[in-house]
Design a protein that fits this description.
- It is a single chain.
- With about 260 residues, the chain is an all-alpha fold.
- It has one domain.
- The chain starts with 9 loop residues before the first helix and ends with a helix.
Amino acid sequence: MTAEPHPARASESTSQYRPDIDGLRAIAVLSVLFYHVGFSTFAGGFVGVDVFFVISGFLITRLIYNEFEATGEFRFSRFYMRRARRLFPAMFATLFVTSIAAVIWFSPTDLERFGGALIHAVASLSNIFFWNESGYFDVDAQIKPLLHTWSLSVEEQYYIFWPAILVLLLKKTGTRWTFAVLIALGLLSFLLNLDVASQDSRVLNQALPFTTGWFSEERASIFFLTPFRVFEFVIGGVLVWGVRKRPGSALFHAAATLIGL
């Protein structure tokens, strides 16, 4: 006799490992690394961060969708425990080592700034902290050793809200409407980017007058804040449906791969 698989493991059995996604991660990592090293060929290498957000959108949406489809529910506690085991050991090791270095080498003023960044990183709010400083592209970035944690904070904020939104949509509206609502959220986020990038935020200020002046630092706002990144997570999320509906043609797959690269 063989035991029936536990329902809680359904998402694991239906979410197969994707080596191609690991390859895409490698391309994204190298792009960001070469950008920071200063290779002129990779002057746009920071787009690797955008690629990571798309990957997260795909993997997390697939995990949630597959588990809900298999069991009719989603175990939030299990999801957050897995995220914590994956992220926290490396994050806290980085924070610990960086704190020691900061105490040794930083001036009191720089150490005070570092303390603020440290607290916000632990609270998954460092993107908001650095947005307030708006110095990612300035020389000041050289004395912000935790600056890179902004993207982790965006990811963690995504982990907080996305599962709840997705499960609610799946329960209340079904698959088709969930797909449609995700598309609408992505378009809204992208249009928000365009509006703020226009420097006057005319549409946003008319729709929500209380936000007037919030995004005066247009480039920093678009770079750091999660609402402006939602469309990237949505791109990854809707690809969960796209993978299921993709043509079986090898030529189509080869062409799509080349276009993607």
